[in-house]
Amino acid sequence: MSEVHVFEHPLITDKLTRMRRISTTTQEFRFLLKEISELMGYEVTRNFETKLVTVETPICIGTFPMLKQNFFTIVPILRAGLGMVDGLLELMPFAHVGHIGLYRDETTHQPIEYYFKMPQNVENSVIIVVDPMLATGGSAADAIDSLKKRGCKDIRLMNLVAAPEGIKLVQERHPDVDIYVAAIDERLNDQAYIVPGLGDAGDRIFGTK
Ligand code: PRP
Ligand code: URA
To answer: Which of 80, 17, 71 is nearest to 49 (CA)?
Structure first.
């Protein structure tokens, strides 16, 4: 079974509380999401493997750790996942970015894929799938299915707010994928929105409502 990492860092929880407020503007919301994504990135990348390399410092020659892998791909689930990309790129400016377009059908709440574009040889990449909201879990689970169909193996999922239902579904369908979240909320409402949540993340990031 995969691990679920919940961030309890006061800087992250403070920023998330600001994002939840209905009065928070689009500009503030977007900025806070970028900041939280960067902070979460430290933990998501913590178990990246390193290898020892020989380096000549101005003083002497020594062996020191560097990242073993050099191919990392951040995969936002459109639209709202886009809001988490820049924060992670601050930490990993060398990362590639692949995009998966999914939207939830308004009545069935089932995800429908409309776009998929990955870097070449993505199957050799370490992948971080990002989406602020893990509600029913259908979008994240389908996105990971699509990546696995292309041969991807090393996948992590990073969300801002998760419902227990979403975590359960992703763990059932992808027991090999660790999940990183800033908060696990109470439940879903009858429209499959997270309660208390923060509303529609895409609309709040892009100012579409
Ligand atoms: C939201 C969110 C996730 C999905 C989560 O996207 O960004 O992708 O819902 O719900 P789930 O866990 O129940 O699948 P939405 O479908 O609203 O699309 P948008 O980002 O284009 O607004
Ligand atoms: N998508 C969102 O943007 N918010 C939710 O609460 C659930 C799905």
So the answer is: 71
Report how far residue 140's alpha carbon sits from residue 13's, in angstroms, rounded to the nearest whole number: 23
CATH number at residue 175: 3.40.50.2020
CB-based contacts of 21, cutoff 8 Å, min separation 6: none
- Which of 131, 170, 172, 209 gets mutated to test ligand 1 (max ligand atoms within 8 A of its CB)? 131
Q: What is the pTM of this model?
A: 0.96
**Whether the CB of 71 sits within 6 Å of ligand 2:** no
Backbone angles phi, psi at 205, to 5 degrees: -75, -40
Ligand 2: which residue has its CA nearest to atom 3? Answer: 200
How many separate domains does the chain show?
Answer: 1
- Per residue in 99-127, pLDDT (tens digit) is 999 998 889 989 999 999 999 999 999 99
Q: In which domain, by residue range, is 117 found?
A: 4-206
